Amino acid sequence: MPVFAERWLGYTVAWSGTVGKQVVVHIPFDNHFARLGEPFFAKAQPMPVTRPTLIKFNVELARELGISADGVGDAELADLFSGNALPAGAEPLAMAYAGHQFGQFVPQLGDGRAIWLGELRTADGARFDVQLKGSGRTAYSRGGDGRAALGPVLREYLVSEAMHKLGVPTTRALAAVATGDVVARERPLPGGVITRVAGSFIRVGTFQYFAVRGDVAAVKKLADYVIARNYPELADAEQPYVSLLAAVIARQARLIAQWMQFGFIHGVMNTDNMSIAGETIDYGPCAFMDAYAHQRVFSSIDHYGRYAYNSQPGIGLWNLIRLAETLLPLFADDTDQAVKIAEQHLETYKDQYEAAWLARMRAKLGLTAGAGSDEEDRALVAALLDIMDANEADFALTFYQLSRLAAQAGARDQDAQVLFAQPAQFDDWLGKWRERLKRESQSDAARQASMQAINPVYIPRNHQIEAAIRAAEDRGDYSVFYELHAVLQKPFVEQAGKERYRLPPEPEEVVSKTFCGT
Ligand code: AMP
Ligand code: MG
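^ inputs. structure came back:
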């Protein structure tokens, strides 16, 4: 039988089976985006997959969202989260958006392999979008197959959930499913579908889509929707659209400061990958750094280092300028006047970012704002990062070891020293840090506890993610994925027997490039 017929059969069986039995997974949908009308999206249907198997269902998140799935079997969850069956109230669609990709404007992108199922409302009134990724072609797929390989699905699941536990705003992972189908990439790979949940899937590129078409009415409609949905406190502002820009600037400044604090490199900060809700979105070729370098790049497609670690704050501003451009007609009738208004707000980004960055870096080093001037503390942090760069010191491990040092020199100093090829450089810095600590009033124990609450023991390291993917892809073994996921649930807590998860890769384990998996 041709593959298509088999697939179709699988689809109808799963579909009618679920409908016939009544859908027992209840998702409290309350869809507003779907009311905006067709130019904002194209209706879509998930394409059937052959043999969906549930890899992971995020029970904790489901509970938070008010999704009831008690007693529902894995097979049924796999049908649902592969797109073979739809939950009641879903209105599947693909969102339209444009975007600057590596600086080049593309007027039409859109959800080419993602399908928005609906918008849910929790008991306390919070709203979230639910989306399948890898669920087949849509009106925006262009030449693509609309599918995702299993590897990137596992990677996004691990990294986005780790981000959440680190306290960084992010899309969440609700479920991961293996499809039983093969996707054609450089080589044939097993397919997967991830179900993601976001405060919003609207991006800077969504605004660009309508702005480039000169459709000011649509830009306004979109802005009104975003305000009502994500920034309700701005609805009564004197200038709600200006306030919207200001609010997005504030959230992005804080978000990128948080990425920097954990050594996170997004990898593809295109305007279509920047969320209007200030969440980390679209985990493609991202990575948490092991060996520190100011200009570290992982993404296999970032040939010129546009999205290198230290370039991220500047690119954040570049993207926000693109957003401001789309909103100008809503600011004032006179363009010069509108530009002036936008500039006033964009100019605050740098200070907001630097304040957020300094606050977090101070906390990472156990320093409080009152005890040292901004300039001297900024210089102390910069000096540490410079010697980490010169020595390629492991990012997370450096702060982990510092969080365990006393205010006086001691035997533990060695654990930090060994991370630096030139220990004299580190000793010199350590002396300066201890001088600075003399002006802090906390006890060693209290300072160490506060440092350990911000410097994680465990981050999703690339080589460990890779090991989880290899086991799953090559051997159908998900135990490595499950164990890594479990460790990352408590990133700040030392876990007995899990020491190896805090260690950087051995030379032969180093992953120097990450891929989009498109
Ligand atoms: P990304 O690099 O994942 O941010 O995707 C950029 C654009 O390419 C978006 O419009 C995606 O929907 C689209 N895209 C990426 N991979 C695929 C695929 N396999 N099939 C269809 N569209 C895709
Ligand atoms: Mg994207």
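The longest helix spans residues 240-261. The pocket of magnesium ion (ligand 2) is lined by residues 272-273, 282 (CB under 6 Å).
thumbs up if we can close this ticket
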